């Protein structure tokens, strides 16, 4: 059984290029046990409107669903994740991010595999254009409303220049880091064995680091984050992108902290805090205003509990500390993925075995 992802591209070649950036991203990290891979794809044109297209991506189907499904089930059934199992899953997600953050260019300069994929994508999109236009012309008997010059199309940069072109000038084996930029429970599938997490949805993937050299670039990155990075899991530096700053892989570390918190508590830390205070979620994120349910100001344990709240949340201190390290407002204070992996391995060793579920 397979899953088909449908991406509508109403604005022609420009939106097809954006959709196909995701297709190329799947090929970059394949095979990796913790990153989803695409099986096939196609570009389909709308017969009535040659300017509109649909990209279909065939993906593996995971019958256990994703982490968000488990979180929802825990809320309904008043259960929680076994801590050791949760941290093993979390370690798998860190492993997937390590492959992205420490990616090494394959093939020739610029990545021969990526270049070949890019050419195939452009040819497929061009064929879809031509077939649709021929159909419209034969049915309507009028001049095409949209001119297509195959020669000029070959000069257009594919993948919006972000995936393929980001590798140009880098020798085989050279480092070319990527940030996922949309880590959240809904983007972490569970393999059919119930042990391996699978990171999915690479449409938000971006080369890293990204130096913000102008105000226009700052606004472009901020707009891109608003479109592709889910708000409750988005790093503060993506809410207010400043000229002169650098957006790097630390945005994913922040999102990992939010994801781990959501698995422990039921929702992201800033959704939780925003609901408690009635304040703006973005203000909570930018101010780093969050806490565990049994904590008061400054991270101190509450002396009294709200009605219906248990005396202790049952979250191990070592796991709390992982969340705290990830949710530092200043990116430089967050661990990188290699440091985080070592921290998580230490936590797993310290945790007792989970009881029967």
Automatic annotation (TrEMBL):
EC numbers for this chain: 2.7.11.1
Gene Ontology cellular component terms for the protein in this record: Golgi apparatus; vacuole
Name of the top EC class for this enzyme: transferase
Protein kinase domain sequence ranges: 1-348
Pfam families, per database record: Pkinase
Keyword Iron-sulfur set for record: no
Biased composition (Basic and acidic residues): 121-130, 137-149
Keywords, alphabetical: ATP-binding, Kinase, Nucleotide-binding, Serine/threonine-protein kinase, Transferase
Listed GO MF terms: ATP binding; protein serine/threonine kinase activity
InterPro entries: Kinase-like_dom_sf, Prot_kinase_dom, Ser/Thr-specific_kinases, Ser/Thr_kinase_AS
Catalysed conversion reaction: L-seryl-[protein] + ATP = O-phospho-L-seryl-[protein] + ADP + H(+); L-threonyl-[protein] + ATP = O-phospho-L-threonyl-[protein] + ADP + H(+)
Residues covered by region (Disordered): 107-162, 295-317
Any one Gene Ontology BP term: vacuolar protein processing
Ranges of Polar residues composition bias in the record: 304-316
Protein name: non-specific serine/threonine protein kinase
Organism name: Monilinia fructigena
